[in-house]
Amino acid sequence: MTVYNFSAGPATLPKPVLEQARDELLDYQGSGMSVLEMSHRSPEFDNIIKDAEGLLRELMAIPANYKVMFLQGGASLQFTMVPLNLAQGKKAYYLVGGSWGKKAYNEAVKLSKTIPFEPILLASSEDTVYDHIPDFDPASIDKDAAYVHITTNNTIEGTSIYDLPDTNGVPIVADMSSNILAARYNVEDFALIYAGAQKNIGPAGVTVVIVREDFLNDQPQLSAMLDYRIQAEAGSLYNTPPAYSIYISKLVFEWVKNTIGGVDQMAEINREKSGLLYDFIEQSDFYTSPVKNVKDRSVTNIPFVTPSKELDAEFVAQADKLGFKNIKGHRSVGGMRASLYNAFPKQGVLDLLDFMKKFEAQHK
């Protein structure tokens, strides 16, 4: 039985990457050591982390005046690091189009009780269970604010921002965790981008942070580990980094570049995969999508439901037995969710559609 992993993260990885990691597990390129046991100060790992940065810069067309860091703590730690480093004494706006955007805003509110800055909820679609990306008036944004925080892809609810909003000239900070490398963005449109790796880049444990140099903090922070400038100047080596996760990420970057052909080609593949599923849902009167606007549809996370919660549960149970793993929707929205990240194969979508047709025929 073929197993397809629809997990929202940690997610499926490219098979060639796993095979190379397996082959190099005991002896990395003749070093006699595994990357798992290698010093992060060794020449071998120095090459790994520099190659990883160089490949990511090439794939995303990251300009030279941006720093790239491989940090720990997941994207959730960035909910605190961003305002701690960038917003003190200023306003910070949050566009909340999903659960993770709300968590970022809530962490900012919590931090503002001890650090002087003002987090502002710019707009939210929580009242409609985040079924769309909310609109706002750019004129409502103070031009002297530190940043406007957005989430480019809402993993749970299946919505995305592809065309960046007008922020009245205020720099944009983006949580790009679930569609980095899956869609093309112009890095120069952002002051800072952060992304947990465990969806499109690699295994859990490393977080990519891309920040414009003039946006780095000038004042020392309460902890060196939470200080962007210290981390950037140390080249992500202030302390022992998540070395093996960085190594796997490097292999994934190589796969995107050499096998896929780059981010634009990857984005085209993702549009094709998600389009197959969206087209089927649209023509069905059995399955529906909770996403209100077509323009907001995510190419990486596609939620859908049947006519009842009971049928949803039956769908998930049958799907699991057939090898469609982790397709159950998030507990906050229910139903099903197919996460079609970069490494997820097109054949998995085609096989899922065959099952969906049979399930509909049985229960319609």
UniProtKB/TrEMBL annotation:
Family classification: Belongs to the class-V pyridoxal-phosphate-dependent aminotransferase family. SerC subfamily.
Family matches, as NCBIfam families: PRK05355.1, serC_1
Binding positions (pyridoxal 5'-phosphate): 75-76, 100, 155, 175, 198, 239-240
Cofactor(s) in the UniProt record: pyridoxal 5'-phosphate
GO MF term set: O-phospho-L-serine:2-oxoglutarate aminotransferase activity; pyridoxal phosphate binding
UniProt subcellular location: Cytoplasm
Any GO CC annotation of this UniProt entry: cytoplasm
Modified residues (N6-(pyridoxal phosphate)lysine): 199
Cofactor, how bound (note): Binds 1 pyridoxal phosphate per subunit.
InterPro entries registered for this protein in UniProt: Aminotrans_V_dom, Pser_aminoTfrase, PyrdxlP-dep_Trfase, PyrdxlP-dep_Trfase_major, PyrdxlP-dep_Trfase_small
Recorded superkingdom: Bacteria
UniProt keyword annotation of Cell division present: no
Residues binding L-glutamate, per UniProt: 41
Keywords: Amino-acid biosynthesis, Aminotransferase, Cytoplasm, Pyridoxal phosphate, Serine biosynthesis, Transferase
Quaternary organization: Homodimer.
Pfam family, one: Aminotran_5
Segments forming domain Aminotransferase class V: 3-349
Catalytic reaction(s) noted: O-phospho-L-serine + 2-oxoglutarate = 3-phosphooxypyruvate + L-glutamate; 4-(phosphooxy)-L-threonine + 2-oxoglutarate = (R)-3-hydroxy-2-oxo-4-phosphooxybutanoate + L-glutamate
Any GO BP annotation: L-serine biosynthetic process
Documented EC number(s): 2.6.1.52
Reported function: Catalyzes the reversible conversion of 3-phosphohydroxypyruvate to phosphoserine and of 3-hydroxy-2-oxo-4-phosphonooxybutanoate to phosphohydroxythreonine.
Organism annotation: Streptococcus criceti HS-6
Protein name: Phosphoserine aminotransferase
Gene3D superfamilies, per database record: Aspartate Aminotransferase, domain 1, Type I PLP-dependent aspartate aminotransferase-like (Major domain)
Pathway(s) the chain acts in: Amino-acid biosynthesis; L-serine biosynthesis; L-serine from 3-phospho-D-glycerate: step 2/3
Lineage, uppermost ranks: Bacteria, Bacillati, Bacillota, Bacilli, Lactobacillales
